[in-house]
Design goal:
The structure is a homodimer of 356-residue chains. Chain A has 356 residues and is an alpha/beta fold. In chain A, 46% of the residues lie in helices and 17% in strands. In chain A, strands 3-2-1-4-5-6-7-8 form an eight-stranded mixed beta sheet, with helices on both faces. A four-stranded antiparallel beta sheet of chain A has the order 10-11-9-12, with helices on one face. Chains A and B meet through strand 8, helix 6, helix 7, helix 8 and helix 9 of A and strand 8, helix 6, helix 7, helix 8 and helix 9 of B.
Amino acid sequence: MSDTLGPVEVVGVGLLGTSLGLALRAAGVEVLLSDVSHEHVRTATGLGAGRPRSAGDVPSIVVVAVPPDHLGAVIVAALDATAGTGAVVTDVGSVKGVPLAAVADHPERGRYVGGHPMAGSERSGPLAGHAALFDGRPWALTPHLESAVEAVETVETMVRLTGAVPVWLTPAEHDRAVARTSHVPHLMAALTASRLASAPENHLALSGQGVRDVTRVAAGEPHLYGQIVAANAEAVLELLGEVRGQLDGLIEAVGAGDRDALEGLLQQGVLGTLAIPGKHGAPVRPTASVWVQVPDQSGELARLLADAVASEVNIEDIRIDHDPTRPVGLVELVVDEPRGEQLLTSLESRGWTTHR
Amino acid sequence: MSDTLGPVEVVGVGLLGTSLGLALRAAGVEVLLSDVSHEHVRTATGLGAGRPRSAGDVPSIVVVAVPPDHLGAVIVAALDATAGTGAVVTDVGSVKGVPLAAVADHPERGRYVGGHPMAGSERSGPLAGHAALFDGRPWALTPHLESAVEAVETVETMVRLTGAVPVWLTPAEHDRAVARTSHVPHLMAALTASRLASAPENHLALSGQGVRDVTRVAAGEPHLYGQIVAANAEAVLELLGEVRGQLDGLIEAVGAGDRDALEGLLQQGVLGTLAIPGKHGAPVRPTASVWVQVPDQSGELARLLADAVASEVNIEDIRIDHDPTRPVGLVELVVDEPRGEQLLTSLESRGWTTHR
């Protein structure tokens, strides 16, 4: 399969570009690397992500993996640079409307097919890259109305070679989807976290795991997320408008002591959490949590997991709630509801202090 | 120490009341149980949380552990029932202003000292109780201006017997603190999750770990959280007003393409995440994340932890990002920044597929 593909040129060898090169090389595809930073190209080449592109090279696919602000211009440049070669041009940008607008009037726009892998990391740069980054993750494919069928098939073939799972969406659908599942949640986390920045320290002493979870993504790099949100302004604004309307309703309900309205809003939230696809896309199953006290010493966590495994209950999820005041951590083991009692009894019998 | 205390009457033997009874019994304190539900009292008694209170009993401490809506009335009733005995009355309610208002005109209000343990669970009822529930967790103590010194000392003694760590706040400070660290984050999670309830299924296929974290607490029981928020309306409304003002600014910044304003707001969020006390109250240290692919089979997770331990790097946190499409999970191991490379190399050498 892979020998029907390539060479693939990756433009921009940061985290995503380098990871793509590594994944494609692992699949036996020839990879050409280019970046405004020769340093990045050297590093990615050294990691085995491909070889620097040289003048004579003729890629069959160009993958643009540059920051959101430069996406459109670099995609257009790639279409120009490959004029007449029939090369397919795609990208890995977080937003798909802006790059599409950039190629809208390009005579060879049919060779462009947008894409967006649902993979990343807080880290960036080629050294953060890894061949397994896309393995099993959704990769949105967003062909536009004039994308050539063969071009779409070529990009899908490349995506499957990385181990990613294609998810088909129109560019507009994609941008609305990520506004809802990624950009607006990030902004809401930032708004929530902002309330903490100004809080008295003794108030923050009451922080539990909940507020840590709600605000975690807000630690992301402001300049990058600023670019992403700005590039998806329309879809983000539509949802923020909904949020504002519901926030007004919430303020009114709390102010007026309207319990029914307040509970109705909280119920909406419960439904929202149930709408998120569960493990392996299956419907969410009811789970039980078992809390275990674990001394904060190297080895204790592994011993707990080994004991949990000995209880023959599959652990669905783990959360560590670090004790703010002493070297003991509370570890939450999440299992299928019917198995909770079995795990608890088993761990107790092995000397762990647990509760539900 | 414990023989200077008791008997302690626990009024309301749900999750918190039963757990308190179990913790105090474990410390050798005599515990009397009462609840409008005889069934609950029987269950808690059977679990060893204490014995049913009978007519002749004279408690030295009464701990009110009933739902927010009934807190004030039950505290007043407890002060009346113990008139002349000098018994101390405290509670474990999530909000402290409302119960204080209820006792404001009570002639023996000096015997009341508010409290709020930072411990709980999605589950409720006596069967969810456990003696270790409070161990190492913050327990807010909120004496009012007229609380008798001996009463405050008695409650502190009881709190320390449960293994909890007293955190001193005025009732008003406490309510502002939990509005910021708990109630408003919960409402923001609900607003964010509400956007998902109405989303097309193919859009939700792009959901990652971020949106799961931001919305997790929104799965909490609407009726209970409705009571809590309603009881802390003033502090919640003040913060929601701030959120609304900042949301307006966000909408304006995104609408006008004002990058500086947008990044400034995201930067505020970053500062907020850094303001949350780190592990053991220490300042947050820079961490590195190592991602590992783990087959979704009982035992694999434990094997990974065992190998991580063998690398002699202490795991600070674990997050499991369940692959939506296949039986492989991505596990994020969080370690101190300088140890990341060591863990990655060690795990790779043991045959794990990892990346940062």
